[in-house]
Design a protein that fits this description.
With 78 residues, the chain is mainly α. It has 5 helices and no strands. 15% of the residues are buried.
Length: 78
């Protein structure tokens, strides 16, 4: 089974961009509580929200979900 890194990646990217959960919620049109649930793995965003996050953070959708982008070898400058 493929490991899913979405929640960890979301926290990492949000913090790397010096954003609060409320800031990211505004990007998605969601509350900070919804972002918190995504980051805790308690809820999953809809596909269009995942695509929006990938575009916003400039990472491929597949990487956002399935790659450990917190690893130092991941090229965030893609």
């Amino acid at each position: 089974m493929t490991k899913v890194y979405f929640a960890d990646n979301l926290v990492y990217l949000r913090k790397a961009h010096k954003m609060t959960q409320a800031d990211l919620g505004k990007v998605l049109g969601k509350s900070h509580n919804a972002v918190w649930k995504y980051e805790q793995g308690l809820a999953e965003p809809r596909l269009y929200e995942i695509a929006l996050l990938a575009e916003y953070f400039n990472v491929p959708v597949a990487d956002l979900i399935y790659e450990d982008i917190t690893h130092p070898d991941y090229p965030l400058s893609r």
